[in-house]
Amino acid sequence: MKKEPILSVRNLKTYFYTEDGIVKAVDGVDFDVYQGETLGIVGESGCGKSVTSLSILRLLDEKGKIVDGSIIMEGKDLLKLSEEKMRSIRGNDIAMIFQEPMVALNPVFTVGDQITEAIVLHQKTDEVTAKKMAVDLLRKVGIPEPEKRVDEYPHELSGGMRQRAMIAMALSCKPKILIADEPTTSLDVTIQAQIMELMKELQREYGMAIILITHDMGVIAENSDRVVVMYAGKAVEYAEVKTLFNDPKHPYTWGLLHAIPRLDIEQQRLYNIPGVVPNPLKFPKGCKFNPRCEFAEEICRREEPELKQIEENHSVRCHFWEKVEEAKRAEVGERV
Questions:
Q1: Based on the domain organization, do 61 and 79 belong to the same domain?
Q2: Number of structural domains the chain divides into
Q3: DSSP summary character for residue 290
Q4: Domain shared by 298 and 318, yes or no
Q5: Does 200 lie in the same domain as 150?
Q6: What is the CATH number of the domain that holds 306?
Q7: Coil, strand or helix: which one is 273?
C-alpha cells in the first residue's frame, strides 16, 4: 500500500505584478512530500525555487499573488485557509530556515526572545518554561554555553551559530515539514557539512519531512531522497536522487551534472551551459530552455513540452530527452 504524501503541490502558479509587466516566477509546479524524507529542489538562481517555498507558507510580498493551484496538507488546501489559520500553521506545522540568518533574525531582540516567542504563541506555555525550552534547543543544535547564548543578540553570534539558532527556532514547535532555503550558502565548507548533518540527525529524531532548496548539486546528492529540477518557473525533471544522478533525462539536468568536477575522470573538461536564465518578463516561446539547449529543434522553439512520466518515479519536460541518452552513450564511448 502506497503511503500518502504529507504535502501535495499541484499546478502552483505564483505571479508578480510589476510596473514592467507580469513575472511568472512559478508557473505550474507539481510535487509531493512524504513524512521523514528529504525532497530537494534544485536549479540556478532565478528559477523559482525560493518563491515556491514562500508560496507554500503564503509569505509573498504585496506584488506577489498565487493565481492557481492547490497546496494540500493533511486534507486541507492551505490556499483556502484564512490568514488566522495560516498563522497557526506557520512555525507550528511548517517551519522555514531562511538562507541569510542575519536578515531573518531580528537584530533588536535576543536569540532567546525570538525562540520563546514561537513557543509561547504555538504551545500556549509561559515565558519561563519557554526560555528553558529555548536553552535546551540551543544545546540540541550544538551551540556551546546555551545558557549564555540565549541572552545574546544575533550580531554577537558567528555565522554558523546564527544558522544553528535559526534551526533551533524552526524546530521549537516540532514541525511536520521543515523548509530549508539555501541553509548553508554563506558558511564555509566545514560548517556546511556540520549544519547538514545536524539537520539529518534532527530529521531522524522528529520524523519530519524536509524540503531542501539549493543550487548546489553536491548538497542535493548527499542529502536528498527525491529531486525536483526547476528552470524558469517550471519543474523540468523529477526523480529519485540516485536515478537523477545516474540517468538524467533533461538537457538542463545533464548540463548541471556535467558542470561538476569528477574524481573518476582524468583531464576532464567541465561543461558550461551557454547563456543565462532568461528574463522572466521575456521568457522565450516554446521550451523555456531552448535558447541554451544544444539538442533544440524547431518544435522546441514553438511548443512547450508537457511534463511526462517516462519511468516509474521519473518524469521529464522535454521533446527530445532521448537525445540526452545518445549523448551519454557517445560520452561513454569516448572514454573507453
A1: yes
A2: 2
A3: G
A4: yes
A5: no
A6: 3.40.50.300
A7: coil
Interval 49-54 mean pLDDT: 94
What CA–CA distance (Å, rounded) separates 27 from 59? 17
In the predicted model, what is the mean pLDDT of residues 170-194? Answer: 84
Strand order in the sheet with 21-33: 21-33, 7-18, 64-73, 76-77
Q: Which residue has the cell 518515479?
A: 313
Question: Which letter does DSSP use for residue 37 in this model?
Answer: -
CA distance 281 to 311: 34
> 284: number of CA atoms within 13 Å, CB side?
21
Which of 157, 174, 191 terminates a domain? The answer is 174
User: 14 and 111: one domain?
Assistant: no
Q: For the residues 313-331, what does the mean pLDDT come to?
A: 85
Whether residues 71 and 116 share a domain: the answer is no
Same domain flag for 187 and 166: no
Q: What is the pLDDT of residue 270?
A: 66
Residue 295 makes CB contacts below 8 A (sequence gap 6+) with 251, 320, 323, 324, 327
Residues 83 and 216 in one domain: yes
- Same domain? For 229 and 88 the reply is yes
Query: How many angstroms separate the CA atoms of 303 and 296, rounded?
Result: 11
CA-nearest of 232, 242, 318, 317 to 278 is 232
- Cα(157)–Cα(169) distance, rounded to whole angstroms? 15
Domain range for 123: 101-174
Domain limit, last residue, from 130, 159, 174:
174
Give percent above pLDDT 70 in the chain.
Answer: 93
Contact by Cβ (8 Å): 166, 181: no
pTM for this prediction: 0.90
Averaged pLDDT score across all residues of the chain: 89
| pLDDT 10s digits, 276-285 | 888 889 899 9
Which of 286, 290, 288, 217 lies closest to 248, judged by CA? 217
Mean pLDDT over 21-40 rounds to 95
Question: Which cell numbers hold the place of 320?
Answer: 527530445
